[in-house]
Amino acid sequence: MNSHDVGRDRGGVAAALATIEVPVVVVSIDTDRLFPARLQAEIVELTPTAKPVKTINSPFGHDGFLIEVESVGEIIRETIELGLKLDLVGR
Questions:
Q1: Which of 7, 17, 27, 56 fits a disulfide with 47 by CB distance 3.0 to 4.6 angstroms?
Q2: Does 4 fall in a domain?
Q3: Is residue 5 part of a domain?
Q4: What is the tens place of the pLDDT at every residue in 23-80?
Q5: Residue 46 domain-assigned (yes or no)
Q6: Dihedral of the CA atoms 41, 47, 48, 54 (nearest 10)?
Q7: How many structural domains is the chain composed of?
Q8: Is residue 3 situated within a structural domain?
Q9: Cα–Cα distance between 58 and 33 in angstroms, integer?
Q10: pLDDT score for 90
Q11: What Å distances lie between residue 46 and 7, 38, 63, 66, 87, CA to CA?
Q12: How confident is the model at residue 68, as a pLDDT?
């Protein structure tokens, strides 16, 4: 997982993220040390279609995205509803 680089062969991370044309929702776990909040903020800053970072408060660090099912589920529901409003779901 740590070897994934969205910018590889795309001119770098900023160039790759700048090409995204669909709405992007970025989620951060406040105690995640593997993918800290500052990196999520950078994704939002570099992605023209990104919504503000959604932060989940969790004592479980990186595993919070697996454990905080209600919080993650709510964000997924909101994102699907946004996609439906923009007619992006099911294409």
A1: 17
A2: no
A3: no
A4: 899 999 999 999 999 999 999 999 999 999 999 999 999 999 999 999 999 999 998 9
A5: yes
A6: -40
A7: 1
A8: no
A9: 12
A10: 58
A11: 12, 12, 25, 26, 24
A12: 97
